[in-house]
Input
Amino acid sequence: MKKLRVMFAVLVLTFALAVSANAAEVALTSIGQSPDAMMVRVLMKSLGVIPDYDTVMKPSALTDQKVFVAVVGGSSKGLGAAGINKEDEVKRGDALFKAAQEKNMKIVVMHVGGEGRRGALTDLFIKSSVPYANVLILVDGANKDGIFDKLTKPKNIPVKTAANVSAAKEPLKAVLAGYGIIK
Output
């Protein structure tokens, strides 16, 4: 009987170590349901980072990750497909950001859609998301009207820029390395 308990304990410990070794250090979601979060997921994978990814992530999904990445970009079609209206999406985002803060996670907000993804819908999500950021990553042209400056300067939120989505890999790499995700 004692031998069986020891074997069971070893099995449980082995399973726990395997789970923790494979646990993602980054949680990734879309705020606004644009396809941009999927592009950021591809960038992360090219950096060797496999995030916990869910376009409609709930706060309960934020567990032991170190970093929460929210990719902001509004899509009426994406919201419709997810069965979410813009008000509920803002509430979901707020709940996620607050849960990440409670868990002392670093919050990275990204807008990689640029000027072409801007508009009233995206701006709603930008205004509700950016104030939570520890750092903001943007593509060139996204801030032509100064909206990001107005939201980041009062809170001294660092802003990293890239020429386009593909080039966003470098500032993302630097940020994740700074948070100890990439060695």
Remarks:
- The longest strand covers residues 26-31.
- The radius of gyration is 18 Å.
- Residues 4-22 have pLDDT under 50 and may be disordered.
- The chain has one domain: 24-178.
